[in-house]
Amino acid sequence: MYKPLIYVAVVFFLTGCQEKTVADLIVTNANIITVDETFSSVDAFAVADGKFLAVGSEKDILSEYRSKNRLDAGGKTIVPGLIDGHCHFYNLGIFMQKVDLVGTKSYKEVLDRVVEFQKDRKSDFIIGRGWDQNDWDNKEYPTRKELDRLFPDTPVALTRIDGHAMLANKAALDLAGINSETKIEGGEILIKGGEATGVLVDNAMNLVDAVIPSPDRDTKVKSLMDAQQKCFALGLTSVSDAGLSKEVIELIDSLQKAQSLKMRVYAMVSATKENLDHYLNAGTIKTDRLNVSSFKVYADGALGSRGAVLKESYSDRENHFGAMVTPLETMGEIASRLSKSDFQMNTHAIGDSANAFVLKTYAKNLKSQTNRRWRIEHAQVVSPDDFLYFTEILPSIQPTHATSDMYWAEDRLGAERIKGAYAFKELLDINGRVVLGTDFPVEKVDPMLTFYAAVARQDLNGYPEGGFQIQNGLSREETLKGMTIWAAYGNFEEKEKGSIEPGKFADFVILDKNIMEIDIDEVPDTKVLETYLNGEKVY
User: Which helix (H) or strand (E) holds 447?
Assistant: First the structure.
């Protein structure tokens, strides 16, 4: 009797003292939506060296791992760190230093905000962004008349919400050398009564942009840090910045290396000749936080400013077809150069004509190449015959564009053409993946609004009943994938982020509600409680 008891005691002692693996962080008591292959849910994970070490049941995690840092999530929902698949991260920060004109309901309100801004800032050159005449009772473009009266000597440049039109006063026009005789390719200078109205569309804006004083380094750094703070607070751990200069990319890299800028940035390089020459010679750049492996190209303008290029005339402006921002020949040359490199080509295309041209250009240049993941950014209006091109071409789309544009989009396109617009589900069915983003600061930064718009296809007042072209709504699972693993795939980063799985970066977000189960109209009010990047709490 005595010997067996000793044996049992020894076995118990040895097994009970078996050393557990040390983790930097253990999270338990959570509803963890992993977004793995099976879209499984678990209740615990362990983190070490900035990566998920193990993911599974609380019982299994605690039996295998120990840590001085334990987080009881209180049953709250955890999702992978959210990825904005198309945005303007740096410009958001710059925008935060300008006159905020988002949400203005009249031109008078625009003017009031500019006057108030100038009282505080006393700027030598007033810059603002965010107005949208489609939200006003008078939906015609404004003119510079009132700006000239208020600011006869101070240049003013106010960019439309979509970034494809600008209102400038006479002082700014004079500085840029713009008058009624000025000609521009790939844009428009609106003329009324023989004079420039002050409204500049697409490439015409470049003339004013060229005379706006460049922000100094301190302003650029503050802009990036302000943008990071705002994004972390909303659960974003990675951003795909659609169009950056070499100078800003190098600044981001230096701030990341100094560990002051922690945000992961997929930087699409603006496809200028200088940038193409430099990066195609230097090659791609890839660190844990910075990915420079793509170029951003503009095909056309925006639908709201009637710059999107359509096959047939705009329904609300006879004989107007929009304008190509980049000449067709130049687009073909860029595609040819990139097809012989390791870089992606990510092209802004809104109108059905622009989409058709870009898709065919891609197909011609890629031919038998596979897994290039070239992207169409926006893919807003697509002709029925052109959808099949998306079998190989990735759609990068922004759900809130649909709910922002739905009030007037049919006026621009007509009853038949609107059927191929904002066709998210159709694009998904053809490709198998969609990359989701916001295009902020064109739209609001909040990913919860992306989720809501993708699923409900309604505005925050529940309009329209049943949803705007609801047949092209996405499921909740599809939407979350588009904001995580598919967005990572669009950047060739699906092996390192986009899901909560062992070996991937420990980027995750704790939400106050379960967005997979609550009523869809509760999603916009869902709050981010905490944001973690590399297992480090950043919000």
Answer: helix 447-456
- Which residues, other chains included, contact 102 with Cβ-Cβ below 8 Å and sequence gap of 6+? 129, 130, 161, 441
- Which residues touch 24 (CB under 8 Å, ≥6 apart)? 47, 48, 49, 67, 69, 535
Q: How far apart are CA 492 and CA 501, in angstroms?
A: 17
Q: What is the pLDDT of residue 66?
A: 97
Residue 317 CA to its chain's centroid (Å): 30
Q: How many helices (H) and strands (E) does the chain have?
A: 18, 27
Q: What distance in Å separates the CA atoms of residue 524 and residue 96, rounded to the nearest whole number?
A: 22
> Tokens for 538?
């950043």
Burial class (CB in 10 A: 0-12, 13-18, 19+), 40: middle
Query: Model-level pTM greater than 0.90?
Result: no
Do 83 and 485 touch, CB atoms closer than 8 A? no
Asked if 361 contacts 311 with a C-beta cutoff of 8 angstroms, the reply is: no
CB atoms inside a 10 Å sphere around CB 484:
30
For 152-172, give one letter per residue: b (16+ CB within 10 A) or e.
eebbbbbbbbbbbbbbbbbbb
Q: What is the rounded distance in angstroms from the CA atom of residue 141 to the CA atom of residue 147? A: 14
Beta strands 41-42 and 82-87 are: unpaired
**Which residues are CB-neighbours of 43 under 8 A, at least 6 positions away?**
28, 29, 30, 31, 32, 57, 58
Each domain of the chain, given as residue ranges in start order, spans 2-75, 84-88+215-537, 98-209
Question: What CATH superfamily is the domain 2-75?
Answer: Urease, subunit C, domain 1 (2.30.40.10)
- Rounded-to-integer distance, Cα 82 and Cα 531, Å: 10
Q: Specify the CATH class of 84-88+215-537 in words.
A: alpha beta
Distances from the Cα of 230 to the Cα of 104, 438, 453, 478, angstroms: 21, 14, 20, 25
CA distance 503 to 54: 8
Task: Note if the bond before 215 is cis, omega within 30 degrees.
Answer: no
Task: Output the six-digit token pair for 426.
Answer: 């159709």
CATH tag for 98-209 (out of 3.90.1200.10, 3.40.50.300, 3.10.310.70, 3.60.20.10): 3.10.310.70
- Successive 10-residue mean pLDDT values, the chain, 539 residues: 42 57 98 98 98 98 97 98 98 92 95 94 92 93 96 96 94 96 92 95 95 93 97 98 98 97 98 98 98 98 94 97 96 98 98 98 96 98 98 98 97 97 98 98 96 98 98 98 98 98 98 98 98 98
Whether 2-75 shares its CATH topology with 98-209 is answered no
